[in-house]
Amino acid sequence: MYDTIAIRHAEARDLEAVLALLCNLELPTGGVREHFRRFFVAESEGTIVGCVGMEVYERASLLRSLAVAKDRQSRGLGSQLTQYIITEAARLGVHEIVLLTTTADRFFRRFGFEKIAREEAPRDVYKSVEFQSACPTTATCMRLRLAPKSRD
């Protein structure tokens, strides 16, 4: 039987656990501290078992650091975290979400992300550490366009 997992906004006390999780999965940690206020964690019985974050720029955001502990993978938690961050980006009025991945392009296609040339990404996301140095230039760049909120 699986235990209950709660997804919540990350708190300062979660930073070290998130960094450890990312390191354990060999994912980049550059820029995490600077953008931690936009991270969410999946917690089970007081333990961080997953995370996802975003860096918000003008009209775009960079989805980053989607991670699920190895013993929790293949149970749908990555999908839950991805949907959570997409919903949060839409709530903030983000027009498009961009990401870089070396292994998960098929996973992100299920959410509507499309592969794009790195040069097609919004210029403001180029400010991120992920674009500058953390992710290799061979990483696949993907984009999800979000419908703008109507102003009723």
Summary keywords:
alpha+beta, Aminopeptidase, seven-stranded mixed beta sheet, 4 helices, globular
Describe, in plain words, how this protein is organized in 3D.
By secondary structure, this protein is α+β, with helices and mostly antiparallel strands. The chain is built from four helices and seven strands, in the order E-H-E-E-E-H-E-H-E-H-E. It has helices spanning 15-24, 77-91, 105-109, 129-134, and strands at residues 6-9, 39-44, 47-56, 60-68, 96-101, 114-116, 140-145. A seven-stranded mixed sheet has the order 1-2-3-4-5-7-6. A hairpin with a 3-residue loop joins strand 3 (47-56) and strand 4. The relative contact order is 0.17.
Quick structural gist:
By secondary structure, this protein is α+β, with helices and mostly antiparallel strands.
CATH architecture: 3-Layer(aba) Sandwich
List the total number of helices.
Answer: 4
Give the overall shape: globular
In the sheet with the most strands, the strands line up as: 1-2-3-4-5-7-6
CATH topology: Aminopeptidase
Distance between the amino and carboxyl termini: 45 Å
Number of domains: 1
Give me the strand/helix succession: EHEEEHEHEHE
Gyration radius from CA atoms, angstroms:
15 Å
- The chain-level mean pLDDT equals 88
Largest sheet: 7 strands, mixed
CATH superfamily: Gcn5-related N-acetyltransferase (GNAT)
* Uncertain spans: none
